[in-house]
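Q: A reviewer asked whether we had any structural model of the full assembly, not just the individual parts. We don't, so I'm hoping you can provide one. Inputs are below.
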Amino acid sequence: MSTNSATVSTTKTWSGGRSPFNVSYGKLMMWIFLLSDAFTFSSLLVGYGAVRFSYPPATPLIEKISPMSHVDHNFVEVLQEKGVFSEAHWPSPDLVFNHFPFLHGIHLPLFFVSLMTFILIFSSVTMVLAVEAGHRNDRKKVGIYMFYTILGGLAFLGCQAWEWTQFINAGCTLESNPFGPSQFATLFFVVTGFHGFHVFSGVVINFIIYLNTKVGTYEKRGHYEMVEKVGLYWHFVDLVWVFVFTFFYLI
Amino acid sequence: MSHTTDTEEYEPISYVPHVESNGTKEIWRTLTILSLLTAVDIILYFYMPLNSFRNFVFIVLGIVKAYYIVASFMHMKHEKIDLAAVILVPLLFVLGLIAGLLYEGNFWLSI
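A: Here is a predicted structure for the entire assembly that you could use as a starting point for your response.
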C-alpha cells in the first residue's frame, strides 16, 4: 500500500479495467452523440436568430387582435394590405400560428403549440417512469410506460403534421410565404422538420426497445440499461423542443 | 507485438453499473416544475408588453426548463462530475456562436 492514497485512487480511476465515469460505454457514447446533436441544433437555432436579427421586428398592429376573437377567411390578405405582413420585416408568430383543430375562424395564438409542448413533457415523464421501472426489473411496467411514451410521440407527430398542413395550405413553401421574408418559412420547415425527424426516429427506437422488453431480452440480460440510453435520446428531443418553442413561437 | 496471446482469451469489457431505483417522487416534482414554467410562459405571452426584456425572460425560462430536463430526467445530477463536465463544458462554444452570429445579423440589418 502506498502512503499517498490520493495518487493511488487517481491511478486506479484511469489505469484501465473500469469505467472512469462510472457509466457503461454505451451510455457515455450516447452522451457524446447528444453533445454533437446539441451543436447541430444550436447552429440551426442561432442561424435562425441571425437571420431574424437581420430584419426589423414586426410592425405592431394598430388595434390588437384579442385571443378567441373571430377571424375572417381573408385574414392574411387584409394584414398584407395593411402592411403587417410584408417582405420588409419579420412576421409576428402571434398572427401566423393562430389555428386550432376543429375551431376554425377563431384567433387562438399559442394554444396549439402549448398543447404540443405538454404532450412532449408528458411523454418525457412516462419515459422516465419506464427507466425507473427498469431499475426495479419490473418488465410489465417498463412495457406499459414505453407504450405510453410511443403514444405521446405519435400524438406529437400528428400535431406537427397538422401544423405543417395548415402552414402549407396558407401558401408557404421553402422559397416563399405570404407572411414575410422567404427565410421565415424556410427556417420553420427546416428546424421543426429536423426536430420532427428526431421525434420520428425516437418513436422508431422506442418501439424497438418496447418489443425487446416484451420479448424479454432485457430480463434475460439482467438489466434495462437500453431503456435508459434511449430515454436520454428522448429527453434530448424534449429539450430541443423547449428551445424551438421559445424561439419560433414565444419570441 | 501483441499483448494478447493465443492462450489468453480476450474478454470485452461490458461494464454496466447497478442502479437502484430512487422512487418516483423526484419525477413528479420535476413534472410540476416544468408544467408551471410552461404555464408562466403562456401567461407572460398574453400579458407582457412586446419588448426585449420579455424575450430575455422567455430565454431564461427556457434555460431553467432545460436545466430540470437534463439534471433530473436525464439523471445528470446523479452522474460523476467528470461526465457532467465532459458534456456541458464544450457547450460553452455555443456562446461564441451566438455572439458571432447575432453580431453578423445586426450588420446585415444595417446593409
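A: Points you may want to mention in the reply: Chain B has a mean pLDDT of 87. The longest helix of chain B spans residues 25-47.
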